[in-house]
Amino acid sequence: MKILVINTKFLGDLIISSPGIRSLRKKYPDAELVLLVRKGYEDSMRNNPYINRIIPFDFGLKKRNIFSRIAGEIGFINKIRKEKFDAVISLHPGDRIAFLSFFSNAKIRIAPRKQSFNYLFNVLVDVEEDTISYLDYYNKLISAFTKNEVEGKTEFLITDQDKNWAGELLSSAGVNKNDILVGIHPGASEPTKIWPAENFSGLIKRLLTAGNMKVLLIAGPGENEIVEKITGSYAGKNLIVYNSDNINRTAALMAETDLFIANDTATRHLSVALKIPVVALMPDDNRICWNFYDGTEKHYHIYGKRQYPSGETPYLGEITIDQVFEKVREVLQR
């Protein structure tokens, strides 16, 4: 059997769908399992042992002129058609995905019911985005094919090579075994999910005066500005800044931390998958869909409220430095 799973969303979604991928492999150990992802996210699933191959889809096609775009879309459809998949499981709705699934000629085509071209699928699942937890959402779509409940936690695997690289980098930065290393990722995809830079800066100062702590500050792509604001007001030592351009190396570094602090973004899910204690700073309106972890998964949350000041950049507010610092101390003591 040859199965195509489509998930062209982002890193957090790929991590959340990992139990479903594992469940597929368990049910069909001899199947060829292929994952279709957004171009640029291939590496994030490269070490997943349950996947045979990864096919990237370039959303840059949308920026081409009409003729080039149509030619590119048709070419990609023909590529998928030649694969002769037996089943296609789409983990989210989408017009392009509906046509891609239909023209794949797969006998089984599974997708969420609520979407414009749902008649192009032949197995429709009654799940709707933003109404249930995304973990349940992905699991139900996989279960529609396996007929079994999806079990187990999210996971993200790190190679020995990346582990060694992370160890060497931290050692060269002066981190030793007696240090408590706290990781921080201050960015997020939406401004209203980002705790202000001055708060992160104040928190780092508190952490670095609390004993043998060191801080690993991770800057994701396009996040140099917020990191510069944080580091610009702190000139002390024991602060290591890493500009992330490789998710597997970033994960290897995160795995070396004793605790991680993140906004409601992919590194929060990555921390859970790596079994690192994480303090997550989250908008209180994301409880149902995005907070499906608990203390047994070493996930600890602090809720704030989205702020929309007139004429200024929105941000995540109503979380104090004291709240985060005390939560960090509490979690580390456990």
Structural features, described:
With 334 residues, the chain is of the alpha/beta class. It has two domains: 2-146, 3-Layer(aba) Sandwich (Rossmann fold), CATH 3.40.50; 160-333, Glycogen Phosphorylase B (Rossmann fold), CATH 3.40.50.2000. The chain is 37% helix and 21% strand. It has helices at residues 11-16, 18-27, 66-83, 95-103, 134-146, 160-172, 197-208, 224-232, 247-254, 266-273, 287-290, 321-333, and strands spanning 2-7, 32-38, 53-57, 87-90, 108-112, 123-125, 180-185, 213-219, 239-243, 259-263, 278-283, 299-307, 315-317. Strands 9-8-7-10-11-12-13 form a seven-stranded mixed beta sheet. Helix 8 (224-232) links the parallel strand 8 (213-219) and strand 9 (239-243). Helix 6 (160-172) packs across helix 9 (247-254), helix 7 packs across helix 8 and helix 7 (197-208) packs across helix 12 (321-333). The termini are far apart. The mean pLDDT is 94.
